[in-house]
Write a structure and sequence with these properties.
Distance between the termini: 26 Å
CATH superfamily: Class I glutamine amidotransferase (GATase) domain
Strand content: 15-25%
Structural class: alpha/beta
Radius of gyration: 15 Å
CATH topology: Rossmann fold
Number of strands: 11
Number of helices: 6
Number of domains: 1
Strand order of the largest sheet: 5-2-1-6-7-11-10
Order of helices and strands: EHEEEEEHHEHEEEEHH
Helix content: 25-40%
CATH architecture: 3-Layer(aba) Sandwich
């Protein structure tokens, strides 16, 4: 079974994070919610409190196939200053493992130089921070082992791209139909 770690920080966009968790679990993909602090509870950008499955210090990166970074403010800023997470993002990308980011979070990858020559998208108005990328205005961009998406309104197609990358297109289509997306 494929394993995903989704990192949540205070100020994360709830829909972008929880849509990924919900649909991946429906697709039988093992997804773990991870707090970037030593506290399991995080509070989203709209005041919704959530208890994560684990914390970053207890997370098992070795068995994971993908890291997911939801957007939201100031959640994205908190993710970017978490050195342990950023080191893992770099290791995953350089090792050919998958990283997915939505909304403001793809700008983290741009500032880290991870999007050079790759098609990527992000929240409207932040495209200048996708350093080195071929900017896309599609709902979702898949460039090798990196998946990016534009925002809350694209959370379902973003997650379906994740499911397709980790399982297959038939599974993604089945989940889309089951939630009356298509």
């Amino acid at each position: 079974m494929r394993k995903v770690l989704i990192f949540l920080a205070d100020g994360f966009e709830e829909i972008e994070g929880l849509t990924v968790v919900d649909l991946c679990r429906r697709a039988c993909i093992d997804i773990t919610t991870v707090s970037i602090t030593d506290k399991a509870e995080v509070v989203g950008s709209h005041g919704i409190a959530l208890k994560t499955d684990t914390t970053i210090d207890a997370a098992d990166f070795t068995g994971a196939d993908m890291i997911v970074l939801p957007g939201g403010m100031p959640g994205t800023k908190h993710l970017e200053v978490c050195d342990k997470l950023m080191n893992q993002v770099d290791a995953f990308i350089s090792g050919g493992k998958k990283v997915a980011a939505i909304c403001a979070a793809p700008t983290i990858l741009g500032r880290k130089g991870q999007l050079n020559g790759k098609k990527a998208c992000c929240y409207p108005g932040m495209e200048g921070e996708l350093t080195g990328a071929e900017v896309s205005y599609d709902a979702v961009s898949v460039a090798g082992n990196i998946i990016t998406s534009r925002g809350l309104g694209t959370a379902i197609p973003f997650t379906l791209a994740i499911i397709e990358a980790l399982a297959d297109k038939n599974t993604a289509d089945r989940i889309a139909t089951s939630v009356v997306y298509k």
